[in-house]
Amino acid sequence: MLKLFACLLLLITGITSAKDIDQSVLIDGKVLYTEECQKCHDNSLVPISDGTSMQSLDDIRWQISTCVTALGIFWMPNDEEDVAQYLNHDFFHFKNTPKPDS
Ligand code: HEC
Q: Would the pTM of this model clear 0.90, i.e. be above it?
């Protein structure tokens, strides 16, 4: 009984201490990026970067749209956002601002 209680407690604290970004978003973004984007952005997963052109999460969103459009990739509407969240979370670390048109 005590064990069950401990498990429940762990579960509850696990849920409430979850980060602000849903892990499934980051995983989805990583898979999409690995599938479609690594042809040009090398195996280390680091995007091509001059270190200055990306200044915010919105810049990343814009650049991803540009790359996706240029490549003619068919993605679901939230796929670009998932990749934006993933790249920002793992590499760019800009402030997480809401998507402008949502
Ligand atoms: C055909 C090669 C190619 C593919 C495939 C590609 N990109 Fe790019 N990407 C580029 C080039 C070239 C640049 C630099 C563009 C510039 O600076 O004007 C770039 C720049 C970027 C940047 C900005 C990086 C920085 O720090 O300046 C991001 C973010 C990005 N791409 C994301 C993606 C995503 C997401 C995908 C998958 C949908 C993708 N790219 C697929 C060629 C590619």
A: no
